[in-house]
Amino acid sequence: MGSHKYMSELWKKKQCDVMRFLRRIRTWHFRQLSAVHRASRPTRPDKAKALGYRAKQGICIYRVRLRRGGRKRPVPKGATYGKPTNQGVNQLKFQRSLQSVAEERAGRRCGALRVLNSYWIAEDSTYKYFEVIMVDPFHKAIRRTPDMQWICRAVMKHREMRGLTSAGKKSRGLGKGHRYSMTIGGSRKAAWRRRQAIRLRRYR
């Protein structure tokens, strides 16, 4: 087995003494840093490599700190001015995952870079920490690599804002199999619109 295989096996045992100690040290260190900052190297080299990271020019890692928990509705004194079904304030959950939000914040911070992927690295009682793999689409080392040229296209601008990354797709209900029949045709909205329409073809 290679070194990355041993590393991934260690990360599977997150409750072992070594990993608990490492997580305690790392979360303390990450709390002292700013919410979005560049990391010199990936915390999980095996995971980063599997998700497309390469130690070459034009690819970098950004670490993002996010506050854990649900989303409280931002209304004054809890007054939603609506019907009772929409009067909830406290026990609401955001529709996207924290990992997707982390990608979005990294993408906003570095507008010229493209978000390739991201992964979880640590969490404590208050925060979750993710590392986001960012790619410079105008760097020659990226533009000359056939495997990376797809991310240089104009339609790949701000993939994270449009739910095109792996974390973003999860909240859209996309996938294959019997569980994903609600999004056949691109999205929930497209599937709903197609099923509501009546098509009376001339020859049928």
In short:
This protein is of the alpha+beta class and 204 residues long.
Question: Characteristics of this structure?
Answer:
204 residues, alpha+beta, four-stranded antiparallel beta sheet
Verbal overview:
The protein is α+β, with helices and mostly antiparallel strands and 204 residues long. It contains seven helices and four strands. It has helices at 3-12, 17-32, 45-50, 98-109, 140-143, 166-170, 188-196, and strands at residues 36-39, 59-67, 114-123, 127-135. A four-stranded antiparallel sheet has the order 1-2-4-3.
Q: What is the succession of H and E elements?
A: HHEHEHEEHHH
Helical fraction equals: 25-40%
> Strand fraction band?
15-25%
* Multimeric state: single chain
Walk across the major sheet and give the strand order: 1-2-4-3
The biggest sheet amounts to: 4 strands, antiparallel
Q: Please state the CA-atom Rg, rounded to the nearest Å.
A: 21 Å
What global shape is seen?
globular
Distance between the termini: 61 Å
| Beta-strand segment tally | 4
Number of helices: 7
pLDDT average, as an integer?
95
User: Helices and strands: which structural class?
Assistant: alpha+beta
Unreliable residue runs = none
